[in-house]
Amino acid sequence: MTAVVVKYRQAFLVGLQSNLIYRWNFLARGVFSLLRLGVSVILWSAAFAGIAKIGGFGLNQTLTYFVTLILLQFFVGAFNEDYQISEDIRNGLINQFLTKPINYFLYRFSIFTAARVVSGALILIPVLLFLPVLGGWLTFPHEPWRIVCAIPALTMSALIQFSIAYCFGLLTFWLLEIQGFVILSMAVETVLGGQMFPLDLMPPAVFHASRFLPFFYQMYFPAAILTGRITELRVVLQGLALQLAWVVILLLVAEFLWRRGLRRHTAVGG
Amino acid sequence: MNYLRIWLAGARYSLVRTMMFRGDFLVWSLVELLWMSVNLLLIAVIYRHTASVAGWNEYEMVLLVGTGMVVQRLVTGFFWSNLFELSRNVRTGAFDFYLAQPGNPLFMVSTRKLDPDGLVNSVVAVGIVLYAVHRLGIHPTLFAAALYGAMILAGVVIHYSILVLTMASIFWLSSSNGIEGTYFTLVDFSRLPKEAFRGMAGVLFVWILPVVVVSNAPARTLLHGFQPMWTLWIMGVAALWFFIAVAVFNRGLRRYSSASS
Q1: How far apart are CA A167 and CA A187, in angstroms?
Q2: Do the Cβ atoms of A81 and A108 come closer than 8 Å?
Q3: A244 at B interface, C-beta within 8 A
Q4: What is the DSSP string of B184-207?
Q5: B92-103, pLDDT tens digit by residue?
Q6: For residues B90 and B83, what is the distance between their CA atoms, to the nearest angstrom?
Q7: What CA–CA distance (Å, rounded) separates B123 from B97?
């Protein structure tokens, strides 16, 4: 057990180092995300003109939701993990994992965790810089159960996001180019993950249906817990159960794709 | 005339290449289509809860956003991948290849290939504009429609200039990784109505940066007919920013020292 922990801890530490190289990229991305938040602020401020509440929430609550999404994106979101995995397969780098006692999923997940530690720490810099502006809007509910429920929700959100990226990366076993599919899925995830607008603003039937999709649990669900868009503990607990189900399903799909993919894989060269 | 021939040769090469990778073309067209739908979905969701945003009703907003999409898709189709590759080419020294060609370097850099998926989707974006015009029940005059077309071209010039300015930063920076974010961030703002901008945001995005005018000027022309102020504004801004972009690019060229390996 200890040996396993040590093994993946090393992968995590290597991940930390290699991601620190890209610190300026993460920082630039963070600054752009906050600047783009300006679009949401201007649009929603105009939509709220003369209206106290939209979908039962005020302007500040809505803006808090968008700020929270940015933080979540840097703390638990998948960035280019799909592309990295795809490159590993295409360049044959994956071959070295086939002969070593190391699980590729866990290895990649350790590096993903390290990357999120780096990007999460870095997003705090622009957020703190913009805090004089953002601080005026931020309004979070205070119930302690929200924090307790947010911890597993965020952990599972990270697992779902990573697993989806992992599965897309593994498609390289079958396809030469996955970039198009990745961006296609990103558009779907952006909408159904609640990054374009809070999902509860959709027609009730569509919102209800979206609860059964994995994308719901990528961003919207943890953000809704933290920002008070889900009001009842009962609904949160139901959500956690569904989220867990999706984690299990996606892990199984990932394992299936890995086994099937390896059958097609030919390790050429040396 | 010579430049037209060069451009046509590049266009022909791009089309042949697209035909070779038909699956890719289909996927990327779908990607762009989906992103356009995402933006329309946002409008639909907002207007479920309000009748007007900054004085614009739902279909006026669709017209505005659709206009922004037409401009952006045309820029994507004609220039995006060419200019996106600029930073890599400057870094690797492959930029020498463009300098060695007997033509204006900015022209050669900008027009080497086309992205047919962007062009296909610009047609879809025009369809969105036409749909909005139909739903609004407006009947623009031929003059207003022609002016709209001219303003779209001015918008393309403005977006192209922003893109050149963004990408030309590679001449001064050692790496421009992620710098394209500047362009996409500015483009996002261009889909909002002018009236929505208040305070400092108004000064910055309406008056200093050429962002809001790109979609607002043509959309207003279709909605309200010829407006001299908006016409002069977009044409003037296009000329000014194109001039700045060319000047900055040429300045950057002087710093380029190739890459040895």
Answers
A1: 17
A2: yes
A3: no
A4: HHHHHHTTS-GGG--HHHHIIIII
A5: 888 888 888 888
A6: 11
A7: 33
Instruction: Establish if B173 touches chain A: CB-CB under 8 angstroms.
Output: no
Buried/exposed A49-64: b ≥16 CB within 10 Å, e otherwise: eeeeebbebebebbbb
Q: Which residue has the tokens 């968008």?
A: A66
Identity of the amino acid at B90: V
φ, ψ dihedrals at A79, nearest 5°: -100, -85
Residue whose C-alpha is closest to residue B212's, from B235, B198, B194: B194
Q: Which tokens hold the place of A92? A: 């044959």
Q: Which of A235, A58, A221 is nearest to A154 (CA)?
A: A221
**Start-to-end Cα distance in chain B:** 37
Helix, strand, coil in percent for chain A, rounding step 5 = 75, 0, 25
Q: Which amino acid is at B128?
A: I
Per-residue pLDDT reduced to its tens digit, B135-193: 999 999 999 999 999 999 999 999 999 999 988 888 887 666 667 777 888 888 888 99
* Closest partner CB to A184 (pick from B34, B181, B195): B34
Contact A32 B181 (CB under 8 A): yes
Q: Which residues pair with B53 in a beta bridge?
A: B56
pTM of the model: 0.88
Backbone angles phi, psi at A143, to 5 degrees: -60, 130
Q: In this complex, do A42 and B181 lie within 8 Å of one another by their Cβ atoms?
A: no
Q: Produce one character per residue of B128-157: b if its CB has 16 or more CB atoms within 10 Å, e if not.
A: bbeebbeebebebeeebeebbeebbebbbb
Which helix (H) or strand (E) segment holds residue B60: the answer is helix B58-75
In the predicted structure, residue A149 carries a pLDDT above the cut 90: yes
Token pair belonging to B36: 């356009």
Mean model confidence pLDDT for chain A: 89
In terms of residues, how long is chain B? Answer: 261
Mutation target vs B (from A43, A45, A74, A196; most B CBs, 10 A cutoff): A43
Phi/psi region, residue A228 (left: phi>0; alpha: psi -120 to 50; beta: rest), is: left
How would residue A254 be classed by pLDDT, with cut points 50, 70 and 90?
A: very high
**Angle B63-B66-B72 from CA coordinates, rounded to 5°:** 145
Please give the Cα distance from A44 to A42 (Å, whole number): 6
Alpha carbons B222 and B10: distance in angstroms, whole number: 34
Q: CA-CA distance, B176 to B185, in Å (whole number)?
A: 16
Distances (CA, A) of A161 to A75, A215, A227, B107: 11, 8, 20, 42
Q: At what angle do helices A2-21 and A23-48 cross, to 10 degrees?
A: 80
Dist. CA B231–CA A132, nearest whole Å:
38
